[in-house]
């Protein structure tokens, strides 16, 4: 009587995947929870979906959404430009500039953006007038602070300065991620320092810079909801104005959530395309 060898080879093509009962249990639990949540959304009359649909494309809501997008674009553009300068200062060999940029980043990353917005909106309490002139000398021209620092101005200043602190660290990390030998190779090819940075260092740094920059853009869009506390007519403020009049709080908040989700989804798709573009050759 013969028996099969103990160490007989196994045909991988005929091997069956191992049964994982815990995964089946977890999947079933998630399915039940999803079904229960969907049932809650569809059967609870207090969501007032008809009211939400009525105000989804309301002109005031759309104007508020446009203001939120405008603040996001302005804040991200100015914050990125200032962030690049701060990153360059932190990486420079000039110690006073590096220290000053480091202190800026620490301060504006450490103070919550809501506090910054309220502070800039009330700047007139500290400085009744804004002036231009010689330091400790004569003043050439001045304006009342409250006529200069409006809700829009305070929102742009607060969001820009806060965003610049984060973008400075993102840009600095991207530049430091590039191998120093790349700069030596650029100099060996006859590039100047500026040409080497633009043509060699920056394209490689963008692979590190783009993903967190896209996340920052999305975070800034959601952060614009904070400007409602200074009576800036963004998306959330427009929603609040309506539900303070109609007392339909939940359906109006659903409208705000729907627009935030829609815009963030579109931005996330754009971020993925940028990541694939700058990540060519890495996989």
TrEMBL record:
- Into which family does the record put it? Belongs to the binding-protein-dependent transport system permease family.
Q: What is this protein called?
A: Amino acid ABC transporter permease
Q: Give the matching Pfam families.
A: BPD_transp_1 (PF00528)
Where in the cell does this protein reside?
Cell membrane
Chief place of localization: membrane
Please give, as recorded in its UniProt entry, the membrane topology of this protein: Multi-pass membrane protein
Which residues span the membrane? 21-41, 61-85, 97-121, 141-162, 225-243, 249-270
- Native organism is Nonomuraea maheshkhaliensis
PROSITE patterns from the entry?
A: ABC_TM1
For this UniProt record, give its keywords in alphabetical order, as a comma-separated list.
Amino-acid transport, Cell membrane, Membrane, Transmembrane, Transmembrane helix, Transport
| Residues covered by the ABC transmembrane type-1 domain | 65-268
Q: Superkingdom of this entry's organism?
A: Bacteria
């Amino acid at each position: 009587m013969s028996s099969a060898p103990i160490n007989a080879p196994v045909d991988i093509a005929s091997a069956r995947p191992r049964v994982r009962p815990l995964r089946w249990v977890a999947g079933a639990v998630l399915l039940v929870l999803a079904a229960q949540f969907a049932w809650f959304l569809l059967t609870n009359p207090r969501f007032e979906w008809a009211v939400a649909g009525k105000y989804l494309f309301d002109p005031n809501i759309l104007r508020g959404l446009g203001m939120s997008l405008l603040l996001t674009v302005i804040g991200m553009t100015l914050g990125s430009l200032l962030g690049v300068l701060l990153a360059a200062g932190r990486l420079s060999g000039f110690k006073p500039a590096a220290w000053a940029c480091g202190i800026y980043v620490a301060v504006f990353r450490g103070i919550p953006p809501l506090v910054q917005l309220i502070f800039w909106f009330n700047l007139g309490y500290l400085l009744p007038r804004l002036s231009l002139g010689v330091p400790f000398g004569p003043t050439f021209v001045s304006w009342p602070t409250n006529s200069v620092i409006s809700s829009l101005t305070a929102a742009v200043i607060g969001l820009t300065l806060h965003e610049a602190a984060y973008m400075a660290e993102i840009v600095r990390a991207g530049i430091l991620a590039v191998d120093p030998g790349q700069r030596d190779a650029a100099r060996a090819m006859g590039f100047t320092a500026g040409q080497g940075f633009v043509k060699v260092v920056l394209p490689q740094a963008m692979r590190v810079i783009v993903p967190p920059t896209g996340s920052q853009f999305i975070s800034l869009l959601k952060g614009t909801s904070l400007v409602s506390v200074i009576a800036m007519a963004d998306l959330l403020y427009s929603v609040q104005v309506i539900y303070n009049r109609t007392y339909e709080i939940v359906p109006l908040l659903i409208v705000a959530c729907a627009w935030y989700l829609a815009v963030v989804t579109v931005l996330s798709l754009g971020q993925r395309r940028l990541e694939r573009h700058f990540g060519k050759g890495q996989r």
